[in-house]
UniProtKB/TrEMBL annotation:
Keyword S-adenosyl-L-methionine in record: yes
Every Tetrapyrrole methylase domain range: 19-229
Pfam families reported in the protein's UniProt record: TP_methylase
EC number: 2.1.1.107
Name recorded for this polypeptide: uroporphyrinogen-III C-methyltransferase
Family: Belongs to the precorrin methyltransferase family.
Keywords: Cobalamin biosynthesis, Methyltransferase, Porphyrin biosynthesis, S-adenosyl-L-methionine, Transferase
Naturally occurring in which organism (per UniProt): Skermanella aerolata
GO MF entries: uroporphyrin-III C-methyltransferase activity
Length: 269
């Protein structure tokens, strides 16, 4: 039985009429923050994204209402202004509103857009950071985002703009030259174009790439490939979103640092 909260921790009060914008982490329920767990136990309504799994939603208090507001590429999805305005409406109804997002709400999660709408309508809110998939998901794949002997910079990028196309405001040459490691969210649809842009900008065609699907979950899968082969390998393996793409020599550390794979081998001994 899950207690309502650890008695020794002074949690903030979740007041009626407030919206809490919270990150649920990359998938594994154990990666929730305590503040996010506290919010789940006290919210009147949870407006949640497609990447928030049932195990996390199952932590909500009895009687809490769940409203799905997930976006999936290429599929009918709620429009962002409608989601933002729904948060305003629920708060004005005097409810404790938890806006629960996969990863971190301010890392390619449109949390900033929703927060600005709340500010516009004078709705009080709190932000609860979450572990973003570009860090936590790669750690579960045995890939460190930074390593002293490999890189001193990392760039997080989105693979498509608000229009659904490859972002046209990115200086591909600057990123290719300036960041030894590049982590791409939502990049599978345009992976061939993105990989081509980086190769044209000077990245080695044989540079190591990993694609991580269902990061931190029991069905996590990691495909190791190269920049020039990654799009073909994704297609050949039938890989579908959600997925992370990481480009850089940190991928080469995975054979030594794949701790989940090591546990599986020990369990099979």
């Amino acid at each position: 039985m899950i207690p309502s909260s650890p008695p020794s921790l002074p949690f903030p009060e979740f007041e009626p009429g407030w919206v809490w914008l919270a990150g649920a982490g990359p998938g594994d329920p154990g990666l929730l923050t305590l503040h996010a767990w506290h919010a789940l136990r006290h919210a009147d309504v949870i407006v949640y994204d497609a990447l928030v799994g049932p195990d996390i939603l199952g932590m909500a208090r009895e009687g809490c209402r769940l409203e799905f507001a997930g976006k999936r590429g290429g599929k009918p999805s709620p429009k962002q202004p409608d989601i933002s305005n729904r948060l305003v409406q629920l708060a004005r109804d005097g409810l404790r509103v938890l806006r629960l997002k996969g990863g971190d709400p301010f890392v390619f999660g449109r949390g900033g857009e929703e927060a600005l709408t709340l500010v516009e309508h004078h709705i009080p809110f709190r932000v609860i950071p979450g572990i973003t998939a570009g860090i936590g998901g790669l750690a579960y794949a045995g890939i460190p985002v930074t390593h002293r002997d490999t890189n001193h910079a990392v760039t997080f990028m989105t693979g498509h703009s608000a229009s659904g196309l490859v972002p046209d405001t990115i200086d591909w040459a600057a990123v290719a030259r300036g960041s030894q490691v590049i982590v791409l969210y939502m990049a599978l649809k345009h992976l061939r174009t993105i990989a081509g842009n980086f190769i044209s900008a000077g990245r080695p065609a044989d540079q190591a790439v990993a694609i991580v699907t269902n990061a931190t979950l029991p069905n996590q899968h990691v495909l190791e490939t190269t920049l020039e082969r990654c799009a073909d390998d994704v297609a050949a393996n039938g890989i579908e979103p959600p997925a992370l793409v990481v480009v850089g020599d940190v991928v080469l550390l995975r054979p030594a640092l794949d701790w989940i794979g090591a546990m599986s081998h020990r369990a099979g001994d």
